[in-house]
Amino acid sequence: MQKIAQVILWSMLCLGMLVCWEAHAQAALKPYNKVAILIDGSGSYKNRQAQAVAQAVALLEEMAQAKFRRWEQSDEIILIALDAIPDVIFQGSLKELKTVAPDAWVARFKARADYVQHTDLVAAFNLALRHIEGDPRYVSKHLIAFTDLIHDPSGGPAPKKGKAAPPPAEFPFAGLEGVAVTILWCPYPQKQAWLPVLRDNGLGETFQIYTVSESGVVKLTPPPKPKVEQDEGEQAAQRQRVRSWFSLIVWCMAALAASIIILPVVGLIWRRLRGHPRLPGAPRTPTLNHPPSDKLNEPEQH
Predict the structure, then answer these.
(1) pLDDT tens for residues 104-135?
(2) Alpha-carbon span 70 to 264, nearest angstrom
(3) Which of 250, 235, 40 lies closest to 125 in space, CA to CA?
(4) Which single residue of 80, 98, 138, 235 has CA 20 to 30 Å from 243?
């Protein structure tokens, strides 16, 4: 019985190790969000910066409250200053975001006064796309930009009131496929100028632009937890791996049971067939010694 208990214990240990390994593998492939947040620091956007920062802070604080298990992949946040020379002022996971006070990166935005004369919209979006790269099956990509969508890298004259600046020809429309884009505090003429181009590039549904009047009532919510998108082939392969692991566990348990229960019985039968008088350590069977009978020496009487 003690050996049988050892077999069960070792089997449970092996099973636990396999389950832990599978959980680790699933955690490594667990989907997560990458969120790039751009805040326009240019002079043309100066009147809307306070509202933009307030909305960004509220969104980040709400995201920082998210709870996740220890083995889950935490969402990644990238904050980008959109001005003459766009730059990342914060990059990290939600875990790291919890340790940074919002005032720290707000101060970074205010310290970039030397870059407010120009706006390189193309460079800012290219920078954001590089930081949210990843396998689309496991990475859900989001880009939130507080900007007027005016591209002015050389400091040219700003468009007149009521006029729109068209989208730059080098804007990375192709790279935004599969990215959920939200633009806030954008002047209405700019939205009018961008919508036809977005539709022509197949981004009419994923590239959302909110005007100045709309942005004040739009509530930004943290991106939902993404799900792994697997095709039928991947699902079949995963089911086959599960069946293989289950078969391996059953085989190991059967082998252990055989080595402890069946093999000793086979050995006992083998020893008996070879004529062993007794097993080592077995007690001897006492024999009775009869004294010789005197009747054998007596003459036969007639």
Answers:
(1) 877 888 889 899 888 999 999 999 999 999 98
(2) 46
(3) 40
(4) 138
Q: DSSP 3-state helix, strand, coil percentages of the chain (rounded to 5)?
A: 45, 15, 40
pLDDT digits (tens, 9 = 90+) for 10-47: 555 655 555 555 544 444 567 889 999 999 988 778 77
Global confidence as pTM: 0.67
Matching residue, tokens 């350590």? 281
Residue environment code for 241-266, b if the CB has 16+ CB neighbours within 10 A, otherwise e: eeeeeeeeeeeebeebeeeeeeeeee
> Cβ–Cβ contacts within 10 Å for residue 70, how many?
5
Q: Angle 172-173-179 (CA atoms, 0-180°, nearest 5)?
A: 100
**What letters, b where the CB count within 10 A reaches 16 and e where it falls short, cover 87-119?**
bebbeeebeebeeeeeeebbeebeeeeebbebb
